[in-house]
Design goal:
Blueprint (H helix, E strand, L loop, with lengths): L5 H14 L9 H12 L20 H21 L5 E6 L4 E6 L1 H9 L10 H4 L3 H8 L3 E4 L11 E9 L5 E10 L5 H40 L3 E6 L4 E4 L1 H7 L3 H4 L4 H4 L4 H9 L3 E10 L2 E13 L5 E10 H11 L16 H14 L5 E4 L6 H10 L8 E5 L5 H9 E2 L10 E2 L1 H4 L4 E5 L6 H13 L1 E3 L6 E3 L3 E6 L3 H6 L5 H7 L2 E4 L9 H17 L4 E2 L1 H9 L5 H15 L4 E2 L19 H24 L4 H8 L3 H10 L5 H4 L6
Helix pairs in contact: 3-7, 13-14, 20-22, 21-23, 23-24
Length: 660
């Protein structure tokens, strides 16, 4: 806002000083309100001025930043008014003068009136002036002559405009002050232009800071990636490479920046072709040169286009093949689940097998587990792995008889990319077992080709994928299982003798269930506990039924025992299974030796456990038979029958002490 005519302003100033009122058609209302505030603050309109500033002003960070931003613009503005008796002032939001440049006579005149660096320009100290009115009204303003409240400033004309930050908050102002006789309305326009330039720079600085913050966040994210990342510009120059990619390729990010990627490393043909054609590739296993020789990595490349389909460059990601394989191992659950604690058996034959297996666990040599189907060869393989130094590494299983012979070699050794129908390539079980154990079930089913390749892997600890030439070093412990016919297969030239000798360095024979005596009852007890817990009901076997189970030959071994027990539990709702409930021919089996006293002991343990469970449930439910039956998962009729069988009455539920 510009000022009124000087004579009219002086006349109205005198009227206001005399009456407290003036013509607001002559004096702008904001100036009138400022005069009124000055009167209320007891500002002396005839004050003589004086040096109220601090020439040794200590700037805070905000003031210093404001000077840094505004000083170049102040100098540009001063060039327009230099030599005409004007000065350019910069204040903070106080307003406090933080910087002043101008003609020496004007600087001296301002100093005489207290308008120096460090001086406060608040209304209650210097009265009405554009240098405080602009901040109060948040508008550009110009005051001339008698529009100033104090007479000592009537000789001046001041023009000022506030400086707003990006949030709209006034942080200071730019003011121009000079002789009233030389004042011009255009001066205010120049001040406004300067403040707008400063505000634009503030916005640019904020955007630059935000951009730098985003760039720092992006760089942090790129560096935190487990993948190697390379960004190329449209000319194929390397514009960004993270540390992971630098480690893989033997490049230093700082020295590699700006150079052609194909000048830095020899690109695999597939990647070079994709870059040339600007076509995306995804998870191609490629071979790159590294500091310590060739490095296999899964490579993806995606061209980058702008909205107008202008090519901007390419983004390349690299994942070391071995880290991908470790991820696959975790995802597919390549871990051994069982230990020697899970092996149930107290028979001499079983204890001997466990003893030999523990010895094998401490050896790096291949192991051959021999035994009939269902004896627990896989359980032993798990236990050997978990007791070895490789326990924390992968445990990978391949059932050689479950894979079509035409696919068996590829499943075991993997295949290189670029093969018909196999463009991406894939590691085999041997590579996936890196550092750990490979279990080959029914190893006798291997094809002649697979036998030859497996022998080479065991002897050299190197594997070559189908269709490839790259030699991959592997560290894998092999455990093989056989139903016991490997020697016949060797004799009939169906299995390579050299491979047999390599695999059978440590041979462990796992006995059939029929040779394990009372282990049958131990296994039955364990399996029954698991199944009844899952079904939510208790089931016992009568002594004669246990004797028959003990006497049966179990040609299917443990697997058959599990199947028989599960079938009986599902087909019968009885809580005590008798001889009549056993399937044929198990029910007809008779002990061939002494009476099956272990069966009697097992039945007694079952009965004692069931009686204790009934008493405990009765005491926990205060003898409420309906709740007891519900807690045990049986009917009330069955509960009454069992209470009668064990000589229990409701009084037993109210007694303290032992449950027997």
């Amino acid at each position: 806002m510009t000022s009124t005519q000087p004579d009219a302003a002086l006349r109205e100033w005198g009227v206001f000083q005399a009456t407290g009122r003036c013509d607001e058609a002559v004096i702008a209302p904001p100036i009138v309100r400022s005069w009124q505030r000055c009167v209320a603050a007891s500002v002396d309109p005839h004050r003589a001025g004086g040096d109220t500033g601090d020439p040794v002003l200590v700037l805070d960070a905000t003031q210093a930043l404001l000077i840094t931003l505004a000083r170049p613009h102040m100098e540009d503005l001063y060039q327009f008014v230099e030599g005409s008796g004007f000065a350019v002032l910069l204040t903070d939001s106080g307003p406090l003068v933080v910087e002043a440049i101008g003609d020496p006579p004007m600087i001296a005149a301002l100093r005489a009136q207290g308008l120096v660096r460090g001086a406060s320009l608040r209304e209650e100290q210097i009265g009405t002036m554009a240098l405080n009115l602009a901040l109060h009204e948040a508008l550009p303003w110009q005051t001339r002559g008698a529009e100033h409240f104090c007479t000592c400033y009537h000789q001046f004309a001041s023009s000022a405009a506030p400086i707003f930050d990006v949030g709209g908050q006034a942080i200071g102002l730019i003011g121009v002050i000079g002789p009233n006789a030389s004042a011009h309305a255009h001066t205010l326009g120049m001040v406004i232009a300067v403040t707008q330039a400063i505000q634009a720079q503030l916005r640019n600085n904020m955007l630059l800071a935000e951009t730098n913050d985003h760039l720092a966040e992006l760089n942090a994210a790129i560096e935190a990636m487990s993948e190697g990342l390379i960004l190329l510009d449209a000319q194929g120059r390397l514009s960004k490479i993270n540390s992971r990619a630098g480690q893989l390729l033997g490049l230093t990010p700082r020295s590699a920046a700006g150079r052609q990627l194909d000048d830095l490393i020899e690109l695999p043909l597939q990647l070079a072709a994709a870059l040339e054609r600007r076509r995306e590739i995804s998870d191609q296993e490629l071979l790159f040169p590294g500091r310590k020789g060739a490095v296999a990595a899964l490579c993806s490349m995606r061209p980058v286009w702008d909205r107008s389909r202008r090519y901007l460059g390419a983004l390349i990601t690299l994942r070391p093949a071995d880290s991908v394989q470790r991820l696959v191992q975790r995802v597919v659950g390549a871990q051994a689940r069982f230990s020697f604690a899970d092996v149930v058996g107290e028979s001499p034959a079983m204890q001997a097998a466990v003893r030999h297996a523990r010895i094998a666990a401490n050896s790096p040599a291949p192991v051959l587990l021999v035994g009939e189907p269902g004896v627990g060869k896989e359980l032993f393989a798990h236990a050997i792995h978990n007791a070895s130094t490789r326990a924390s590494e992968p445990f990978v299983l391949l059932n050689c008889s479950a894979v079509p012979r035409t696919l068996l070699t590829g499943e075991l050794f993997g295949y290189e990319g670029g093969q018909p129908g196999r463009a991406d390539g894939r590691p085999g079980k041997i590579e996936l077992a890196q550092g750990g154990t490979l279990l080959l079930e029914d190893v006798g089913a291997l094809t002649a080709e697979a036998q030859t390749s497996l022998l080479r892997v065991i002897e050299t600890q190197h594997v070559i994928r189908l269709g490839g030439q790259r030699v991959v070093a592997v560290d894998v412990r092999v455990i093989a299982t056989s139903n016991g016919d490997l020697e016949r297969a060797v004799a009939e030239a169906r299995f390579r003798p050299e491979l047999f000798y390599r695999l059978s360095v440590l041979t462990i024979e796992i006995p059939p269930l029929r040779a394990r005596g009372d282990d049958v009852l131990l296994l039955l007890n364990q399996i029954l506990a698991v199944m009844t817990r899952r079904l939510g009901r208790q089931v016992l076997f009568a002594p004669e039924a246990l004797s028959a189970l003990r006497a049966y030959a179990w040609p299917g071994n443990v697997r058959e025992l599990e199947s028989v027990l599960e079938r009986m539990l599902h087909l019968s709702e009885k809580s005590v299974l008798t001889l009549a409930d056993l399937p044929q021919p198990i029910g007809q089996a008779r002990p061939s030796a002494a009476p099956a006293t272990p069966a009697d002991r097992l039945y007694d343990r079952h009965a004692a456990a069931e009686r204790e469970a009934i008493v405990r449930a009765g005491r926990e439910t205060a003898g409420h038979l309906g709740h007891v039956a519900e807690r045990l998962g049986i009917s009330r009729a069955t509960l009454w029958r069992k209470m009668k069988q064990y000589g229990l009455t409701k009084e037993h539920f109210w007694q303290a002490g032992p449950t027997h």
